[in-house]
Amino acid sequence: PCEQACSRGEVNEPICIRFLKRFVSDRDTKRWKSKLKIKPDTGKKVAIVGGGPAGLTAAWFLRTKGHKTMVFEALPQAGGMMRTGIPEYRLPREILDGEINDMLEIGVEIRTNSPIESVKSLFAEGYDAVFLALGAQSGTKMGIEGEEDPGVLDGITLLKSVNLKEGTVKIAGHVVVVGGGNVAIDVARVSLRKGAKKVTIIYRRTRKEMPAAGEEIEEALKEGIDIQYLTAPRKVKPAGQRVNASGQKVAPSGQLEIECVKMELGEPDKSGRRRPVEVKGSEFKISADLMVAAIGQKPVLFPELDPLLNETGWIAADPVTLECKKKGLFAGGDMETGPASVIKALAAGRKAASAIDRMFGGDGEIDHKFIPEEETLMPREIGRQEAFAYRERAEIPVLPVEKRADNFNLVEQGFTDAAARKESERCLKCQLRLRIKKTPMPF
What we know:
By secondary structure, the protein is an alpha/beta fold. The chain has helices at about 15-25, 55-65, 80-85, 95-105, 120-125, 155-165, 180-195, 215-220, 335, 340-360, 415-425; strands spanning about 45-50, 70, 110, 130, 140, 150-155, 175-180, 195-200, 225-230, 230-240, 240-245, 250, 255-270, 275-280, 285-290, 290-295, 295-300, 330.
């Protein structure tokens, strides 16, 4: 989101903010730990339901404010979609585990294999506040005939099976993925790495409308994944025997027969994207060994939360504080907004922590400044630089395609010191406007 707002984009292309942050993180020596201050114990206890990005973020900041935090995680390990959904070639597990260990070191408690089915019971146990951060851990149905076939599953199930090494999903032959978001791209790229001979993504709009990150789409195409745009499935059925021209009974190449139809774009829908409309007479069939629906997600909620849902089926919370109708109950992340990015879930965790701290009588200030402003490396004077406007955005170094096929090694390799410095020097330094003192006009 920050790159979309970068002013440098008005000159040519925005600064690689995400990768510069990655550069700093890759070189983290943990020296900041010696300057981290944990406030004295306040006597307040917070239960956090869900150990994903929103829940863990809230736990971290609440603990630094002196409140006891207990994270209840249903799975054997914390991390949420960062562990069950995002493939290791995008997020190495040692990075995730290291972040969680940092939280444990400051006193955040995490109770795994502990699903929660009652908010009332948590308040009865003496918790002063509860933050629900259950995420959206269930895939949605396509609504087509035959999708109950064992050869059809949702993307969340496949990714969870692979990432947790459950081995419950067999991936082989031709895999057809339905959808155009990041989950669909992840499913396709994971399938290639787990033994699929061919992977096809079918998406009912054009590439322009695909919600997946542009760089993820590019890498998928480089890896040989076929994307069929303006295509939608109608129904799926087991591929049975058929009779060829010679009267012999033969079996199609795949175990599934997917009937598809071509689409064209009509008027915009509620999302602002043009609505896909079927093209009459454009039906065709695809043979596949596995069909994966990656068209959306929803939370898995317990009945006690039903009165707190809005008309769209997501939990309703105050947009500023994330507090629900019940006093002391907060909710945020994907279960409140719908499926979104990790960074938005982190933001929800911050927002909830700040609001809960204020409810306890604190100031709600959760940011830490480890380096005084006067010690930053900002130059005292800035002058003109030759061809400054023409400096191109740095290319992101990636693992060569031929080295990705049978492994989950990190694809995006990160900047070298020289590349990071060169890219950072493209910055327009917009923050300097905040240091300009107001000068009254001389009349």
